[in-house]
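Entry type: protein chain
Record version: 2
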Amino acid sequence: MTDKSKPDADVKLDMSGLTCPAPMIGAKRVLDDLRPGQVLELVSDCPGTRDDLYIWARHTGNEIDHVDHLGGKKHAFYLRKGHRPEHKAHVTLDMRGAICPGPVLEAHRVLEGMKPEEVLRLVTTCTAARDEVKTWSKATHCTLLDEREIAPSEWEFYLRRG
């Protein structure tokens, strides 16, 4: 998620030179001792770390807040400890591979057929959808409950019909 500004790290952990799953295990050990909201900067040059972290974060409620490419194979991952709220979706709309405005237009169509207060989970790989969903939800009677990057360049949005 390189579009966000880089957060200040509460703890730094350099796992350069170690292969997977060592960087993820190291990150877990450090995050276990942090308070919710605190940030770990994990540096790794293992190519599998990125995918491992996204999968692990999705299942633990932690968040990859920012990723910096440091040169070569080395990356700094900014992991925020916390447990995001779980939203129960009444409908899932998988728009991976569709380009904007397709995901937003289709989400609008699906939400119109849903009951008030029901929740739609929109999954997309369209990079413009992040801005479009925010703008569109503000202009309509739907509420953006949550958004998160669930894999590299793959986002999910939880939208509640108003």
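Comment: The CA atoms of residues 2 and 67 lie 6 Å apart.
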